[in-house]
């Protein structure tokens, strides 16, 4: 929230002006993080990911994250709940992207 207040951005993405804390966005945004829990922007994540995991895998992780969030959001909404924020953690198992944690 501090970065948004100062710059109007989160993870390098410009957001609407005058949002209040916990206000629902029109559509979800991808806010990548690396361990240890350092915030980063999509651009810097892609840049550093090229060396770590490659650009294609970084893009696939973004796609999967947003698809999972959309599914969970819709499910929660069908139960009268709001999914405001979540975190997905991925790993590789036997050469496949694997969801290893959600919080």
Which features does this protein show?
40% helix; D-amino Acid Aminotransferase, Chain A, domain 1; two-stranded antiparallel ribbon; 20% strand; 103 residues; alpha+beta
What does this entry look like structurally?
The protein has helices spanning 2-7, 42-52, 55-78; strands spanning 9-10, 13-14, 33-34, 38-39, 88-93, 96-102. The chain has a single domain (2-102), classed as ATP-grasp fold, B domain (D-amino Acid Aminotransferase, Chain A, domain 1). It has a two-stranded antiparallel sheet. The chain has a two-stranded antiparallel sheet with strand order 3-4. Strands 5-6 form a two-stranded antiparallel ribbon. The protein is flat. The protein has 103 residues and is α+β, with helices and mostly antiparallel strands. The protein is built from three helices and six strands.
**Radius of gyration, in angstroms, nearest whole number:** 15 Å
Task: Note poorly predicted spans.
Answer: none
Mean pLDDT metric: 81
Return the structural class.
Answer: alpha+beta
Q: Which percent band covers the strand fraction?
A: 15-25%
Give the termini separation: 19 Å
Give the proportion of residues in helices.
Answer: 25-40%
CATH superfamily: ATP-grasp fold, B domain
Question: How would you summarize the topology of this molecule?
Answer:
Elements: H1 2-7, E1 9-10, E2 13-14, E3 33-34, E4 38-39, H2 42-52, H3 55-78, E5 88-93, E6 96-102
Antiparallel strand pairs: 1-2, 3-4, 5-6
Helix pairs in contact: 2-3
